[in-house]
Specification:
With 1893 residues, this protein is α+β, with helices and mostly antiparallel strands. The strands form 11 sheets. A 6-stranded antiparallel beta sheet has the order 22-21-23-24-25-28. Strands 3-2-4 form a 3-stranded antiparallel beta sheet. A 3-stranded antiparallel beta sheet has the order 17-16-20.
Length: 1893
């Protein structure tokens, strides 16, 4: 190989004579074979040289590059811009040479045979569907391709499917990343043993050819790259070059897919340094090579990189590990020389060095020198290839090639090192890139493959300083966007923070680098190195401090901020990703005692960084007012490592805590955040816009809370446990600005807070204290307890789905933390605390999901309001939790009233934090509690129940956590002596509770009521001390006290006592006497906390002496205190519980409580109520009354609404309606009365002012989807299963009509059938009526309404003004009688002959309407316009079937078919038969009656020629039969036996003048039944075989002369057979016979059943029609007696019919003319047709009349089967895989949603298909989203999913990727809505689709 390489160095050699000119492939093959032979000789010099020469010529980089240099020429040269012929030629040569003369494909196959396929390594790009199994994965990034996943066994594992964001590779077979048990069948075998060794000569040619090929590629890349001039993005040029190179890179990619053998050759080539040196140094005389080398050097320089030889400053090519250089990044990223820094300058480095320049920041001396950032030296093809890959911004093809090589272990290591070497360069390119998103994804695509492997990461860390490189690169990256921090001391601040507005942060450009860093920190070996390296830790803390205090908010005090910045997203994301996640990664390795050292390191450097930060921002003791930052990552690092140290590493907390002064500084900012949260919720920041609320929410939101608020609270808990409690408590109240409020006086002045905010700020302060004192998340709870507490809190707020619960429980953000979502502990805790509620389906209600709801015992024992308050993002959730708790107590009978939040016992504190409880036992807190209790008792303003609740909670906490049982004696002795200075004697709450306070001196405004009172006699204000035991301290001393304490601490801890605290805020707290309007008053109090509590009990219960110590009755209570009675209840219960606990804790207290209760409390004197207070009291009372009134009204309104809903809104369930009465049901009333829902008047519909029904017209193809088999079709899930629509009802009818039209006269064909099976018009109404003129003005107002409606008014759409149901037309009500009056109902005794005559006459009388149409009335206009609407509802193709366009017959056909469609659909809604009977479900809501009037009116405009009227053929015998055959030339009419009887019925009835008389109706039905029956007999005769026919013919003939021969089917059948035998109908059988004839033997029973089944559909439709026209109820019956019941109901059965016989259908016949004559006449028509067309004649006779109900396609159980087949299926139009594939659930057609490839005339495919398949209604399953989408006309809506996961949840967009299973109930609901046409009414969220779906 070396020889080959050496030969390459020389210039081009003269071609050898043996070389034929490159021509045909044959020559190439011959040459290749020759060369291969030459190279196989032991002395292969000559062969090598020859090959080099050939390659030199073939792969010459010169020709194509001239062209590639600029696009136009390239297009010309390459023939239409494709890759030029030269490149193709070169590739052909390479393939031939590699194959060494054989065929390339055979060569590939041969190489593949040697593939030791241990790894899959399949590389995929973004949007690929892959799988991740947490059970099998070792690394969290593990992923499998679908094939490996399905081949492996993952049953019962925790896996999910996901769409790759950035691309990835399959890890199957890689035991570093996943457990071997999860490998698939192909990669289980460690196959290295049984794969034979690769023969040397197979790949010999490759070793020679590939180096040149790759070099050629690199030359192309060098040539093609031009530096973007002056920052003009030159992506265009880059993309051009890349397009030209596509074939070459694809060729390399194909090579990698040949398997291991070829990959190892490629690895050799790519990593061989000698090859690279020889080919690329550019030293030869080859001008081209030289030029390309120069371009390469230029590219390096322009990237701000240096090629080591040019740089003598460094002296060394590669820095040795020891070099410590202070690297400084200068202005433009150019390297500063070393002399630039002076050592004395070092401290000062953080200062700003002039404004123009970017801040320079000191990098610690331990970081490796600048060379990390600036030096690159390439030693192999691989390195330079990666360089260009980066330069070209990671083209997908190159990335895939580089990744495809990874299964080769040697390559993997080399490539990883190369990647690390280029890391800084990657960062620079990324920062400059315009497409940073795409580029980020590609970078991560590569890095995640490299860094997830622990072994590899460790190796690179050791050999290539990976950690140093990453940290340095991150630091440099952030340095580019630093600004001066404005926190605290704006002028003198030296601190710099990142600017969240910069693109780098706003677009998350940093995430690839941060995610790599997190990834490598997840490996223990790497993390340990990081935690041991002090230099790295210092640098990292430096990095973290860039984020400390970013995105500072300043409170707007005057006007609303103009521009709400949204930078807070960037800030929160940056802290979470760049600071918190690495922190969690590090924490996960500090789990055991041995890791104490690491914690000490982190804590040490963290404190140093914090100290630096406090110095930099010039912080002393007071935070600057009105500003807050939510970002304190340094505090949080410190807190989390402390927590870990105590929890897992048994470290002594005090050993890692700083001095008191530092603790006091540490607590300030987190406390500031807590106070600001209260301010934000009190609307004090409202002028800063909504974004500030957004920040407050994000801070506590589930993904952030355990990296933000939890560490903050924990840090405050640590500070509180170590600082002086009085100092801490007073700080809290000062921070919350409510100090002034804590006075006994009834009025006060607050200098820092408006009155309206006081109450909520006080609530905030107390709530914060409660949280601080009762939260145990980091103070001793185990992980499982924490998980349980979190889960209970979330479930108490609302029932939750499994996935939202997973999302809401704050997980440790680091994936390797061990607590994985869905882990074992999660599921077990969930089943312990919650019950699963399966999804319920209210028809038409919202689709519900499976929910988890807390178990009763959880409400009883574990509901923790504190945790709920901490975790709620919205305040309303707290209320929701309390409401649910209240409901539980009511339901379980535990407490009837409005309960208070229950007090929950806490887990014990960890010993290290015992000091926290001192807060509860400090005088300051007791003074506050006493004051508040007093104020509440005295009804001072500004106090709420919430305040009292929190005060009691704090008292109870104090009692629960009192230090030690104090001996009663000692306390009583030193009472009065030791408390002159202050309110209370000691600091223990238990004893302080009973301490009486007599007098208090307060400062009040002079207007306060206290001033007027006289002071108690003996006192002047200075001799106060002589008062016995007076606690006259002022609460103002809170601040003074805090100041004093702070000063003490500072003086103690710092020797420089001269550094006196600057009284920054002296202006705020005025000295007590300075404000002139304040004056001192002394109040007589004479209360203790205990006495206040007992009085409170009286006040709350509203009764005197309501409290009676329970232990006086039942001494047991004191021994066994846990009484469930006290667990739940309101304030009264809480007070009782506290008094009981106080009595338990000390005998003294018990005694005092008894004493207080004994002094029968005098009735509280009527307080002197000031006018102002009276006003507020009145207000309250009035408010209360108003509230009650409102409640009453609302309740009344609700019940009204409910009753309306019950009557009106049953659209949804066509099953159980309580219909609206359209009309009033007294038959006496001659005129129907209608109510107009717009103007509210009622009256009849009249000619001039017609009333109409609100209707929705829609085209429907549901009928056409009926099939004749019961099994519903399945959705195809393999190529073989295809659905052919030839057996649907629509298809069969279509075929029949076109067959008729081929042989018969068009106009008569159009009367012989019905249309509307597809695209028929269905009319439905909600039953409400309105005046048509009212409707018009209503539409006008809708048109002018600017509000965006979900419907388009221009298309006539509106919603019913009363019930809001969707509608689009109004159907006029025909004036006249309501129920057809009795006159019409009376059975006349006329004979059937007379009636037939009358019917004929009535039909022949044109326009014989009560209203003459000629006069244009309002009514007739409306009728016409509604007819137009009906026509326009469906598409033209569903209306025009005539051969002559626009023929009247066509309209005629369309109109009676509308009636047919509506009747048939109603039948389907009833389940396909009329057995249930009863008033039709749609009965009162049906508009058939009105519809019939409209249709009849229009039908009568077209009078049928009496010649052609089928009525004649049915009722009269034609004289001479032969006359018809005379005119052969024109097509004959359709024989009457081919007519569809139901269509004839509708034609006859609609031709009659309305209203119709009942006896005429019956007459028509009787006549038609004879025809129908004859058709049934004919069909039967055709179905059976020759012998049967002969037998029947014979038996029937015998009975022909019996008296009821005309009513015996045997006789009639025999006659039919004998008549038809005259023609050719039964001939020509022989061959086809078997196909048509069923082999069953016909028994009389089966024949009778056949005849009945044949006739039933007609009887059903006729009965429905009769029911609608004459308002008769339908009888209900069993299925087997349906025929007899319907026929008697229709009057076909003679009334005297005896029911004993078995029923026979023939007895219903009533022939108008002698049966045999008319039958023979009918048969004659058939015979004359079958003379010529026997086949068709027979086909037309056998009608399939038994259609089954329509169904949607049957879906498979598991969604994955659909997904795997369809998501890779290609579109039939463009053969690409569509981006959004969908499948129609009605017919199974595969369509592209929004696919432009399939667009036709601006209609996308789904919309087109919905028109063709469903006449405008389409139901599609979106494959990639598992969601069903409904298209209805011009609107669409997302319906929801019918596939749910194991927890009963949808997975829209397959985000979670869990296995989904069909939910039969939902699918049933969907099908029901489709069949009943109620999509429009039930689904609420419709939007226009603009034909774009």
């Amino acid at each position: 190989m070396a020889a080959a390489a050496a030969a390459a160095v020389g210039g081009p050699q003269p071609p050898q004579p043996e070389l034929p000119a490159p021509g045909l492939a044959l020559d190439k093959a011959a040459t290749a074979a020759h060369l291969k032979a030459a190279l196989s000789r032991p002395d292969n010099r000559a062969g090598a040289e020859e090959l080099q020469a050939l390659l030199e010529r073939v792969l010459s980089a010169e020709r194509p590059l001239a062209a590639a240099a600029d696009g136009e020429e390239a297009a010309a040269a390459g023939g239409g811009g494709g890759p030029g012929a030269a490149e193709e030629e070169a590739l052909e040569w390479c393939k031939c040479l590699l194959a060494g003369g054989g065929g390339y494909d055979e060569f590939c196959a041969a190489v593949r045979a040697y593939d030791p396929a241990a790894l899959c390594g399949l590389v995929w790009t973004a949007n690929f569907v892959a799988y991740r199994c947490r059970t099998c994965g070792i690394s969290p990034c593990m992923s499998l391709c679908a094939e490996c996943f399905h081949q492996g066994d993952h049953t019962g594992h925790d896996f999910n499917m996901f769409r790759s964001q950035a691309g990835g590779a399959c890890d199957c077979g890689d035991s570093n990343v996943m457990r071997e048990s999860g490998f698939c069948k192909r990669h289980q075998i460690k196959s290295s043993s049984n794969i034979p060794c690769v023969p040397k000569d197979l790949l010999m040619m490759s070793e020679f050819v590939l180096p040149r090929f790759i070099f050629c590629l690199i030359q192309y890349l060098r040539e093609g790259y031009n530096e973007p001039a002056a920052d003009v993005p030159s992506e265009k040029d880059l993309n051009k070059v890349l397009q030209l190179l596509e074939p070459q890179i694809s060729f390399l990619e194909d090579l990698t897919k040949m398997g291991g053998a070829m990959r190892s050759v490629l690895t050799q080539v790519l990593t061989n340094q000698q090859n690279y040196k020889d080919l690329t140094s550019g030293l030869g005389e080859n001008a081209c090579a030289k030029k390309s080398h120069e371009k390469y050097l230029i590219a390096l320089k322009s990237s701000g990189l240096t090629y080591p030889e040019d740089k003598l400053v460094y002296g060394l090519q590669e820095p040795s590990a020891g070099t410590s250089t202070l690297a400084v990044q200068g202005f433009a990223g150019a390297t500063g020389t070393l002399g630039q820094l002076d050592s004395s300058d070092e401290e000062d480095q953080d200062g700003s060095q002039g404004l123009g320049k970017r801040k320079r920041v000191k990098l610690s001396s331990s970081t490796k020198d600048q060379s990390i950032m600036d030096v690159l030296k390439h030693k192999s093809f691989l390195e330079e290839l990666l360089f260009w890959t980066i330069k070209y911004e990671f083209p997908q093809k190159m990335v895939t090639f580089l990744l495809n090589m990874l299964p080769d272990q040697e390559y993997k290591v080399a490539f990883t090192k190369t990647f690390v070497q280029h890391y800084a360069f990657i960062m620079k390119t990324l920062k400059k890139s315009h497409e940073s998103d795409t580029m980020s994804n590609r970078i991560v695509h590569i890095s995640v493959q490299l860094f997830s492997n622990e072994e590899l990461a460790r190796q690179v860390t050791e050999e290539c300083q990976l950690l140093d490189i990453m940290v340095t690169v991150l630091l440099y990256m952030m340095e580019s966007c630093l600004i001066k921090s404005e926190l605290q001391d704006e002028e003198n601040s030296l601190h710099v923070v990142v600017n969240c507005g910069e693109a780098l942060l706003k677009n998350n450009t940093y995430w690839p680098l941060v995610s790599d860093f997190i990834n490598i920190l997840s490996h223990q070996s790497v993390a340990k190195r990081f935690l041991e390296d002090h230099g790295l830790l210092v640098t990292w803390m430096n990095f973290v401090s860039f984020f400390q205090g970013m995105n500072l908010n300043k409170r707007e005090l005057n006007e609303h901020v103009e521009f709400e910045s949204q930078t807070y997203y960037a800030a929160f994301a940056a802290e979470l990703e760049a600071c918190a996640q690495p922190m969690w990664g590090l924490l996960s390795h500090c789990k055991v005692r041995e890791t104490q050292e690491y914690t000490r390191n982190v804590v040490r450097y963290c404190l140093e960084a914090l100290q630096d930060w406090f110095d930099a921002i010039n912080f002393v003791d007071e935070p600057a007012p009105n500003q807050v930052t939510f970002h304190l990552p340094l505090h949080r690092y410190y807190a989390m490592f402390l927590s870990k140290a105590v929890k897992c590493q048994e470290l002594d907390l005090d050993s890692v805590l700083p001095d008191q002064e530092m603790l006091m500084k540490l607590m300030i900012h987190p406390l500031q955040i807590q106070a600001s949260l209260a301010e934000i919720h009190s609307n004090m920041w409202v002028r800063n816009g909504l974004q500030i609320k957004g920040q407050a929410m994000t801070y506590v939101q589930s993904h952030f809370c355990n990296s933000m608020i939890d560490p903050d609270i924990y840090l405050l808990q640590v500070c509180a446990s170590r600082l002086d409690p009085d100092y801490f408590i007073s700080s809290v109240f000062e921070r919350f600005k409510v100090v002034d409020l804590l006075t006994m006086a009834s009025q006060h002045q607050n200098t820092v807070l408006d009155a309206e905010h006081e109450r909520s700020m006080l609530e905030g302060a107390l709530t914060f204290l409660v949280i601080l004192l009762s939260l145990r998340l980091h103070l001793g709870m185990s992980d499982d307890e924490i998980l349980r507490a979190e889960m209970v809190a979330q479930l108490c707020m609302n029932d939750r789905t499994h996935s939202s619960l997973l999302d809401l429980i704050p997980e440790n953000p680091n994936p390797k933390s061990g607590i994985i979502p869905g882990s074992y502990s999660f599921e077990s805790v969930l089943s312990a605390v919650a019950d699963f509620k399966a999804p319920v389906f209210e028809p038409g209600g919202s689709m519900q999901q499976g929910m988890y709801t807390p178990k009763a015992e959880v409400w009883d024992q574990e509901f923790d309001p504190v945790m709920v308050i901490l975790r709620t993002v919205y305040r309303r959730d707290v209320q929701s939790a309390m409401d649910r708790y209240t409901a539980f107590l009511k339901q379980s009978g535990k407490f009837p009233g409005n309960p208070w939040p229950p007090y929950k016992k806490r887990t014990p504190l960890h010993p290290s934090y015992k000091g926290l409880m001192r807060l509860l036992h400090c005088k300051t807190l007791h003074i506050v509690l006493f004051t508040l209790l007093y104020k509440i008792l005295m009804d001072h303003q500004n106090l709420s129940e919430h305040v009292l609740c929190m005060v009691l909670y704090l008292i109870e906490l104090g009692l629960e956590n009192s230090a030690e049982e104090e001996s009663d004696e000692e306390a009583s002795v030193c009472g009065p002596e030791r408390c002159h200075d202050s309110w209370f004697p000691g600091s223990n709450l238990v004893s302080n509770m009973r301490h009486f306070i007599n007098y208090v001196r307060v400062r009040v405004p002079e207007t306060a009521p206290e001033v007027k009172r006289d002071s108690p006699a003996s006192t002047s204000s200075d001799s106060l001390s002589s008062l016995h035991n007076s606690g006259t301290a002022q609460v103002f001393s809170l601040v003074a006290e805090r100041r004093k304490k702070f000063q003490e601490i500072i003086n103690r801890s710092s020797s420089e006592a001269n550094q006196v605290v600057r009284p920054k805020t002296s202006n705020k707290w005025s000295a007590p006497g300075s404000a002139p309007q304040l004056t001192t008053a002394i109040l007589e109090i004479k209360e203790s906390i205990l006495s206040l509590l007992i009085k409170l009990h009286h006040k709350l219960s509203g009764k005197q002496n309501s409290y009676y110590p329970p232990w006086l009755d039942d001494i047991e209570i004191l021994i066994q205190p846990e009484i469930p009675k006290y667990n739940h209840g309101d304030g009264i219960t809480a007070v009782e519980r506290i008094l009981l606990k106080a009595a338990l804790q000390s005998r003294m207290n018990k005694r005092i409580i008894e004493e207080i209760c004994r002094k029968v409390t005098p009735p509280v004197p009527p307080k002197k109520i000031t006018a102002a207070e009276k006003k507020t009291l009145d207000k309250e009372e009035r408010r209360q009354k108003a509230r009650e009134r409102q409640q009453k009204l609302l309740a009344e309104f609700a019940s009204r609404q409910k009753s309306f809903m019950e009557t009106a809104m049953d659209v949804d369930s066509p099953e159980n309606d309580i219909p609206m009465e359209i009309t009033t049901a007294e038959p006496q009333v001659s005129e129907a009365v209608y109510d107009c829902v717009i103007c509210g008047q009622s009256g009849p519909s009249s000619e001039d002012r017609p009333t109409g029904l609100v209707v929705l017209l829609q085209a429907s193809s549901v009928l056409g989807q009926c099939r004749d088999n019961i099994e519903p079709k399945k959705l195809p899930i393999t190529e073989e299963e295809q659905i052919y629509p030839w057996d649907t009802c629509a298809a069969v009818h279509d075929v029949r009509l076109s067959l008729l039209q081929r042989y018969f006269k068009d106009s008569s064909c159009l009367l012989a059938v019905s249309i509307g099976w597809e695209g028929g018009v269905y009319v439905q109404t909600c039953g409400h009526t309105l005046h048509i003129d009212c409707h018009k003005s209503y539409m006008e107002s809708l048109r002018n309404d600017q509000v965006l409606q979900g419907f388009s008014v221009d298309k006539g759409e509106f919603t019913c003004p009363l019930c809001r149901q969707f509608a689009n037309s109004v159907l006029p009500c025909y004036p006249g009688s309501n129920v057809e009056s009795n006159l019409w109902q009376r059975p006349s005794n006329k004979s059937i002959r007379d009636l037939i005559k009358e019917v004929e006459e009535l039909q022949g009388r044109p326009g014989a309407f009560p209203v003459s149409i000629s006069s244009e009335t309002n009514l007739s206009k409306e009728m016409e316009s509604v007819m137009k609407d009906i026509k326009n509802t469906t598409q033209k193709k569903y209306r025009d079937y005539s051969k002559t366009p626009g023929s009247p017959d066509n309209d005629f056909l369309f109109m009676y078919s509308v009636a047919r469609t509506n009747l048939e659909l109603e039948l389907i809604h009833r389940g396909g038969n009329l057995c249930s009977g009863g008033a039709s479900t749609a009965g009162k809501r049906s508009c058939l009656n009105q519809l019939f009037h409209v249709l009849a009116l229009h039908m009568r405009l077209y009078s049928i020629d009496s010649e052609y009227n089928p009525w004649r053929k049915l009722t009269q015998l034609v004289e001479e039969m032969n006359s018809q055959q005379g005119n052969e030339e024109q097509q004959p009419e359709v024989p009457i036996l081919y007519h569809d009887v139901t269509s004839l019925l509708l034609i006859q009835i609609l031709m009659m003048p309305q209203p119709l008389r009942k006896d005429h109706f019956t007459c028509i039905v009787k006549v038609l039944f004879t025809l129908l029956y004859t058709q049934a007999l004919v069909a039967l005769s055709v179905k059976c075989n020759e012998e049967d026919r002969l037998a029947w013919k014979h038996t029937g003939a015998l009975k022909k002369n019996a008296c009821d021969a005309e009513k015996s089917y045997e006789v009639l059948l025999s006659f039919v057979i004998s008549e038809l035998s005259k023609g050719k109908l039964y001939h020509e059988e022989g061959t086809q016979e078997c196909a048509m004839v069923s082999p069953i033997a016909w028994s009389p029973e089966s024949m009778e059943k056949y005849l009945q089944d044949f006739c039933l559909p007609f009887l059903r439709i006729t009965s429905l029609l009769q029911h609608h026209l004459f308002g008769e109820d339908l009888p209900s019956c069993q299925e087997e007696e349906e025929f007899s019941v319907l026929s008697s109901c229709l009057g076909l059965l003679p009334t005297f019919y005896q029911t004993e016989h078995p029923f026979i259908s023939a007895s219903c016949l009533d022939w108008p003319v002698p049966a045999f004559d008319i039958i023979s006449q009918w048969c004659f028509e058939i015979n004359s047709f079958t003379e010529r067309h026997a086949e068709q004649g027979k086909a037309l006779l056998i009608q399939e009349s038994r259609w089954k109900l329509p169904h949607l396609l049957q879906l498979p159980e598991n969604y994955n089967t659909i997904f795997q087949y369809y998501h890779r299926k290609t579109c039939s139009v463009c053969t690409k895989v569509p981006k959004d594939p969908a499948v129609c659930l009605v017919c199974g057609t595969f369509v592209c949603l929004k696919g432009l490839c399939c667009k036709q005339q601006s209609y996308c495919e789904c919309v087109l298909h919905s028109q063709n398949c469903g006449a405008g209604t389409g139901i599609f399953l979106l494959i990639n989203a598992s969601v069903i989408i409904i298209i209805r006309g011009h609107r669409f809506c997302l319906w929801g999913s019918v596939y749910l996961d194991a927890h009963g949840e949808e997975d829209r967009d397959l985000r979670r990727g869990k296995p989904l299973y069909i939910c039969k109930e939902r699918y049933k609901v969907l099908e029901q809505q489709w069949i009943s046409h109620t999509f429009d009414h039930i689904n609420k969220r419709w939007g226009p689709h603009y034909n774009g779906l």
